[in-house]
Design a protein that fits this description.
The termini are far apart. The longest helix is centred in the middle third of the chain and has 96 residues. This protein has one domain. It contains four helices and no strands. The chain is an all-alpha fold. 84% of the residues lie in helices and 0% in strands. The chain is rod-shaped and about 170 Å long.
Length: 167
Amino acid sequence: MSDTEEVEGEGEAHRPQFKAPKIPDGEKVDFDDIQKKRQNKDLVELQGLIDAHFEHRKKEEEELIALKERIEKRRAERAEQNRIRSEKEKERAARREEERLKREEADAKKKADEDAKKKSAQTATVLPDTGLMQQKHTLTLKSLLRQLSFTVCLFTQDVPQSTARSH
């Protein structure tokens, strides 16, 4: 035997051997009826598979629509949250800026007050009697004005009551 004959012999040994279906003796076999029953069975099975497929597809489409709606809803919520967060951040930044400006203004005012105190202290040390002299000068001016108005009234013979009482 050659190598090819051995392979062919082994191939036949591995094939399953089918038995021919037994046909009952004496009965008439209607192959058309068997074929119709098989087609009807296959049609019913195929119709069931198609229905199951479309039901499954319908459920998946509903889930997909629900998922898209959830995604859009979540996206809208996030946008709203981001908008609110940015508004709060702007308000916070404005408050910080306002507080900073107030602090700077208070510091500038404090510095100006300190500078004014330093100037007045320096002038007070340089000219210690200046404040007193200015006060005396103001008093003398006031008294001079009163006397002048009194003398003017005497010459006009119209003495106001308030001025006359004060002297």
